[in-house]
């Protein structure tokens, strides 16, 4: 039965690869690897922020946030900025862009291996995301909303039902990375778990085994 599971996974990945490469691709600036703030200070200052200025984010800021979320930290072994059970990396990062300098609004998917984003919708679908997240205003107004999703099949295929726990733990790692990166960039964010899973899945047209785990609006404070 294991070969059947692997066959299904390969088909899913091929479908997703084809789907992702139908849109406009934007190469992101290289992430900065040093900042003026220490990890200790970032931990001290980390807070959930729900109200943001109307100012757009820069492409460099978006690049930095995405790299912190799931970026490649070891090119040789393809390790990422977040630990992952069995190095399976089931998380997928989507971005609803409302205001980012230099790129049009829309929904994009992050490709960690190439550090680029691929546009999958020309609409940010912000009103739909707002409704699906129980009408939380910060979802509607933030320049960027990060949507963390997970391919549960990847981890469950190896770890069974316990893989579900590992995925939610990994989502927490990812969210904390985004929080701390936002502190260093003088940006605000908040982790949102209150949303209609089925609606988010429909809005993004996620594959069968992929589900949303967290929403994180981000903006200048």
From TrEMBL:
Positions of the Nitroreductase domain: 46-220
InterPro entries reported for this sequence: Bacteriocin_Proc_Enz, Nitroreductase, Nitroreductase-like, SagB-type_dehydrogenase
Phylogenetic placement of the source organism: Bacteria, Pseudomonadati, Dictyoglomota, Dictyoglomia, Dictyoglomales
Pfam families assigned: Nitroreductase
CDD domains assigned to the protein according to its UniProt record, in alphabetical order: McbC_SagB-like_oxidoreductase (cd02142)
Matching SUPFAM superfamilies: FMN-dependent nitroreductase-like (SSF55469)
Gene Ontology molecular function: any one: oxidoreductase activity
Name listed for the protein in its UniProt record: Nitroreductase
Taxonomy, superkingdom: Bacteria
């Amino acid at each position: 039965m294991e070969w059947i599971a692997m066959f299904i996974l390969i088909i899913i990945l091929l479908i997703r690869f084809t789907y992702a490469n139908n849109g406009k691709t934007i190469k992101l600036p290289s992430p900065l690897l040093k900042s003026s703030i220490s990890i200790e200070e970032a931990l001290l200052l980390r807070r959930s922020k729900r109200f943001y200025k109307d100012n757009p984010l820069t492409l460099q800021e978006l690049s930095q946030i995405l790299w912190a979320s799931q970026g490649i930290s070891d090119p040789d072994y393809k390790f990422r900025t977040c630990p992952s059970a069995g190095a399976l990396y089931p998380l997928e990062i989507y971005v609803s862009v409302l205001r980012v300098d230099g790129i049009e609004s829309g929904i994009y998917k992050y490709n960690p291996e190439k550090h680029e984003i691929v546009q999958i919708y020309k609409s940010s679908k912000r009103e739909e995301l707002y409704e699906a997240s129980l009408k939380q205003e910060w979802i509607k107004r933030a320049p960027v909303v990060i949507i963390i999703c997970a391919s549960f099949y990847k981890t469950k295929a190896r770890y069974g039902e316990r893989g579900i726990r590992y995925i939610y733990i990994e989502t927490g790692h990812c969210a904390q990375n985004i929080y701390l990166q936002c502190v260093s960039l003088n940006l605000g964010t908040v982790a949102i778990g209150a949303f209609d899973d089925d609606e988010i899945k429909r809005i993004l047209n996620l594959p069968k085994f992929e589900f949303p785990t967290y929403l994180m609006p981000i903006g200048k404070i």
